[in-house]
Amino acid sequence: MMLSLVLWFPVLWAVVLALMPEGKNRVRNLALVGAGGLLGITLFLLTRFDPSQSGLQLEENLPWIGVLGISYHLGIDGIALPLVLLNSFLTAIAIYSTPPGISRPQLYYALLFLLAGGVAGVFLAQNALLFFLFYEVELIPLYLLIAIWGGGRRGYASTKFLIFTALSGILLLGGCYGIVGLSENNLPLSFDFQDLQARQFSPSVAALLLIIFLLAFGIKIPLVPLHTWLPDAHVEASTPISVLLAGVLLKLGTYGLLRFGVGLFPQAWQRFAPLLATWAVVSVLYGCLVAITQKDMKKMVAFSSIGHMGYILLGLAAGTPLAITGVTVQMVSHGLISALLFLLVGVIYSKLGTRDLDRLSGLFNPERGLPLIGSLSVLGAMASAGIPGMMGFVAEFLIFRGSFPVFPLQTLLCMVGTGLTAVYFLILLDRAFFGRLCQDNIPAVTWSDRLPAIAISTIVVFLGIQPQTLLHWITATTQVWGSH
Amino acid sequence: MNFLSAVAVLKTATIVPELIVILTLVVVLIVDLVSGRSNRSLPTLTNLGLTAALGAIVWQWLHPQTSTLAFLGTFDSDRLSLVFRGIIAFSALLTSLISERYLLQAGVALGEYLVILLTATVGGMFLAGANEMVTIFVSLETLSIASYLLSGYTKRDPRSNEAALKYLLIGASSSAIFLYGMSLLYGLSAGETNLLRIAAAIRHPELAVVLAMVFIVAGIAFKLSAVPFHQWTPDVYEGSPTPVVAFLSVGSKAAGFALAVRFLVTVFHTIEPEWHYVFVILTILSMVLGNVVAIAQTSMKRMLAYSSIGQAGFVMLAMIVDTEAGYASMIFYLLVYLFMNMGAFACVILFALRTGTDQISAYSGLYQKDPLLTLCLSICLLSLGGIPPLAGFFGKLYIFWAGWQAGAYGLVILGLVMSVVSIYYYIRVVKQMVVKEPQEMSEAVMRYPQISWVEPGMRPLQVAMVSTLVITSIAGIAANPLFGIVNDAVTGSRFLQASVSPPVIVQSLP
């Protein structure tokens, strides 16, 4: 029941919001109440979750459409739990940081809640087709959120996003059908993950299916060279949508790769691992190098995402318990840090009307600049670059420590990536925050602008100092996943 | 032989649904004649009659007969034909609901229209169960001629005339081709017209049988508007009255599929690879051309015309895999297609009634003026595009799964890719309606009238719209009863059971 509640509460709330009459603040307040409710439900979920167990918990398994092998099978383990929590938290942040005067609030907030429900469904689904269903459900709300409330080239960006994601979807469906249709042993039709694990494949079929899944999720993560939709989508999306896009939606890709790739094709995964680690290096270095050349702050943060998602692939490729733990922490950490950075860029853009690094300078000016936003940006940049004491450090350290024994060279090259991260964020900070203030009469930053960023920063620092708080939920599960 | 024993021998009870439709037809005709033009009860009568026919179909479904062949083997009332007859009758019911206002606004008479529509329905329903070539041809022509009349019904509109003439000319020649194929079969089987007997008589495949098959497939493909026999579709769809297009794209097509399944599977069992081969080509061409050309359309009706060609491609894909799951998925898809396509047409009609245009660009910014219409059209189009959790998603999922199980990997992959293409052009319309800013609103939407449902004929349109919206939204999630029906339809049909290749592993949950 608990998991269904996490899944259906946002959907229900979306319907309520869509039916609300006009009256801007009423809709917004109701959305905030819903976000609080969702966060509350998710926090309550924590109390019901037993961190010492490694398997699925709070399972719900109802038959649904037998002829198709779909069952309504939900479950949660130590890897999904932090992501579900992240989803609820960032949904609340996104709703809070939406400007109160947004046009068409009913539709906007309803779509945000639908998105939250769909994403939660992906994390909780324990049936491959159910996973696919939720994976496709988030497509249209996100498309509309970019296409309606986006920037100048939103039509182009949203259509590009739609086509890429739809392609990723059919690859995923083709892969699912492939697992059942091409396996060597004849089992009763079911797409439940636990039944799919029992299927065996000839090595070539397994390799083919794994490639399909890598392409499907590679688009979503995104891995170079399948990433081209991401910078466009990020630049055109409004700040709250960017927060969700980078914060949780990219995680669908890595989470899917973990469930489908590592979970279903352990042998093929191991054979592919060196290649994947190399691919991770390419992605990391490409993301970092391209980020260095960017003039648009948002694009820079978007490319930093590509780099950071590369670490996750490295950890997955290594597959040691430590690396998988690192992967899970990195998913959460990247979710929080990129959300923080997008929020800060959003505040700067809304106050100065530009994100161009050539036109911004001196924002640290204590009198007329944005000193607190600047300090938080420094903190975000440090966290993203993996400076000790922040959450980013914990995640990256775990991944590198876990991967080094398996892929020493690739791990070292990825570490170069963290150095490069520091480089481009220093460029960003130097250009935007130091020097002479670029324009006068900057509108005052209100506490409602700062609050979401402060909330995320607090968590980033707290989990950087006290990672055990998070690891305690994760490790039992990752021990099992890592020993595949 | 007295009357009662004739009824018993012929098993007239099997065609009670058709008899009800015929009775309705006669009553409508008489009432129209007696009470004059101003009578407002004709659509209600039609709807009641069609509902009663649907009720009879349900009753027959719940009380299955041991032997389904009636009229000395000319009509088969098995569960497969019942489902198809149900789809055709339902599509006629929805068409009648969405027609009234349209016809009133176009200023043409209702009575004849309803009579012709019911005639087409009777033709389609008989076609779905016909098991003998003369019956097939007569019912096919009943359906076709009624369709020609319907497409030219708004006679003051030159485009409607053009559509009717084009449809008539191409339809007549395709009927001729179909008839030629049947005449070959008649000769080859030494004078048999019953499909089962023909199948028994032409056990040895020879060139003439293949030739007959090609002619017959050509005739059927015209009804299915499968590429390359589709050229009439866009023009006829664009010119004909929109409710007629709705009927042609659902009811007439379902009748075509019923005919295709029964005729091809029964008669050409011996040359199965050959007719499959022909249909694979038709399927590939339909899926690719229908979906790709739909992208370039600017008129909503033309777009839906091409999309219906593409959709027919998906259904044909399900048909040619020739497994139990394949036929079941085909019927399932037709069932959900009935609702989502009818829903889309209901919305297009409503929009055209309120604004007088069906250009896609005219839909810009519609959400501001008419949220219900926007929601309904969006849901129906997204369902046609296969977006979860709508009905069309599950339909596609089932078709592709059936195809995959049967090993038609190439076709399934093509179908998957084409469904992405279809998402693109369906979402283009949604984008026009939902995404556009108030200042980008089209002229037509700017002049959008106050929403009111009180004009005569608006309520039925509203009922059709909302019911298709609801069914399209939930039919996928609560699909189990539907899956049960289509499964029973396939297992309850003897000729399909004989055809379904025995060694197919039908997997199911323990």
Description:
The complex is a heterodimer of chains A (484) and B (510). With 484 residues, chain A is mainly alpha-helical. Chain A has a domain at 290-484. Chain A has helices at residues 2-19, 24-48, 80-96, 105-124, 128-137, 139-149, 154-182, 193-196, 203-220, 229-236, 239-264, 266-292, 297-318, 321-352, 371-384, 391-403, 408-433, 447-465, 468-482; strands spanning 57-65, 70-76. Chain A has a two-stranded antiparallel sheet. In chain A, strand 1 (57-65) and strand 2 (70-76) form a beta hairpin. Chain A is globular. Chain B is mainly α and 510 residues long. Residues 503-510 of chain B have low confidence and may be disordered. Chain B has helices at 3-10, 16-35, 42-62, 79-106, 110-129, 133-151, 158-188, 195-201, 207-224, 232-239, 242-267, 272-295, 300-320, 324-355, 366-369, 371-385, 391-405, 409-435, 443-446, 458-474, 480-491, 494-499, and strands at 69-70, 75-76. In chain B, a hairpin with a 4-residue loop joins strand 1 (69-70) and strand 2 (75-76). Chain B has 22 helices and two strands. In chain B, helix 9 (207-224) packs parallel to helix 12, helix 11 runs parallel beside helix 13 and helix 17 (391-405) packs antiparallel against helix 18 (409-435). Chain B has one domain. Chain B starts with a helix and ends in an 11-residue tail after the last helix. Classes of the chains: A mainly alpha (484), B mainly alpha (510).
Number of strands of chain A: 2
Give the radius of gyration of chain B.
22 Å
Question: How confident overall, as mean pLDDT of chain B?
Answer: 91
Strand percentage of chain A: under 5%
